[in-house]
Amino acid sequence: MFAESALNVRNKRVQNLYRILFLMMTVLLVIPVIIILSTLIAKGGSIISIDFLFTDPTNGMTAGGIFPALLGTVWIVAVALLASVPLGVAAAIYLNEYAGDNWFTRMIQLAIINLAGVPSIVHALFGVGAFVIFFGFGTSILAASLTLAIMTLPVVIVSTRESLRAVPQAFREACWNMGATRWQTIKRVVLPNAVSGILTGVILEVSRTTGETAPIMFTGAAFFLPFLPQSVFDQTMALSLHLFVVATQVPGVPENLPYGVALVLIAMVLLMNSISIAFRMYLRGKKKW
Amino acid sequence: MRKISYAISVAASSLFIAFTAQAADRTVIQNKGSDTLVNVAQAWAEAYGGVDANVAVAVSGGGSGTGIAAMINGTVDIANASRQMKNKELKLAKSKGQDPIEHVVGYDALAVFIHQDNPADTLDYDQLKSVFGRGGKATKWSDLGLKVPGCKGDEIVVVSRQNNSGTYAYFKKEVLGKKGKYRQGTLDMHGSKDVVDLVEKTPCAIGYSGLAYATDHIKMACIMKDGGDCVTPSVETASDRSYPIARPLFMYTNGEPQGAIKTYLDWVKSDEGQCILLEKGYAPVRGVSCN
Hints:
The structure holds 2 protein chains of 2 kinds. Chain A is an all-alpha fold. Chain A has helices spanning 6-44, 50-54, 67-98, 103-117, 120-134, 141-165, 169-177, 182-211, 214-217, 239-248, 256-285; strands at 57-58, 63-64.
């Protein structure tokens, strides 16, 4: 029989110790999520109703619903997507499929990485200078969405590149050998196989745009608006700014109102994320390799 | 793939149509500035929807400085301010082709807030100076001859505002004098409500904020100036100007107001508008009877 030496015993003990340590770290990670969600549901759940979601705020924003803010957030996110997805996907296709490995490409990559590191308040001030004043859009949905689009471009570019890279090189080579051009290959082979990854990036962008406050505060979101936006040149209320306002600016707000707004905001993000996960699983199931 | 791109293009074009469909004839008045005025400005904007449905007032906060800067840059129709524009700012505005006209739309009393367990009832200007002013002698509550229950270190926690706030500028000018400066190490809050929230929870704290932000769980000091009787801040004492730390609230327009902006400002100054102001805890510009 093989007897365990002292060294074996010690190794096993150390191994168990680390496993438990890392397990505890992982559990620690989940705790804040659980605490945040349960607090929000406990304190804000009572206010959530169809009326709360679909009516205007009343009585100095201390009562009523959040519809203008909810709709405003949908507008801002939709316009930001329209601007950043085509741009980001096109840039990623160029970088991954066409560009050679030279100083120009490396400089672009450096720029993208740096763009991702710029703090959101700096993006906000850039948005005021560029879109609100220079391009003359005024404080509007368009200005706010373009600011957000620039802020989230790196997310779209990087995730699209990753999913393009994941398509095996052999697929492209096979296609080229059939006499297809580069563009035909991209359109018929690369993109269809990369679409699930691209969508993941898009959804990530949506959840980030939904929650941002600083970039829209100066460029398009208002404290209060008595009308719903009709075009991209209108100002709008937004859920994230509305949460800031009812939590810190307005006296006499019932306690469950800010928690309710926060709950709606987080529910929107979680919903988007789950849709993305479901969609990705569906598309992955259809993959041929 | 074809199906997906078809779906995307349909979605995109329908969004595009929705976005380009222009609104009906609606006049939008841009109104931005003072955090002190933002809640009453919001209440006015909300109520004005019932007066004239074709005029919409878009309200943003940010502080008097933000509103005045926007007026100078010509990006607002009405700037809210809880202080007067400085000569320097007026000159800058003129050089950019703007002509700011001042309108007084109400009065605001600045209350000195202390924790409800704080035994202090009256405070005079000298005491306030020694607490808030640079080089002031009072750093502990015992320096004022007070024992505050629940305040362990006896240290006074001085709560102030960020320096682009009109409230900050007015309190400094009125209480600390023209050349006065705030002491270093104050807690500078970014909103009128934040000051009240903090003082409410902190036994050692003292802070100033608009009377309108008072709650039932906080104490307001009765203020003595120049050895006179002490006056408690209230809408009445602000209106009759007997309370010393009360200031006018301004709206600035670019040139004499015209059209929709004039109608709106006239309505703000009317009995209906002033009653909304009163309801929000500010003092009206003249006696009004509200039900």
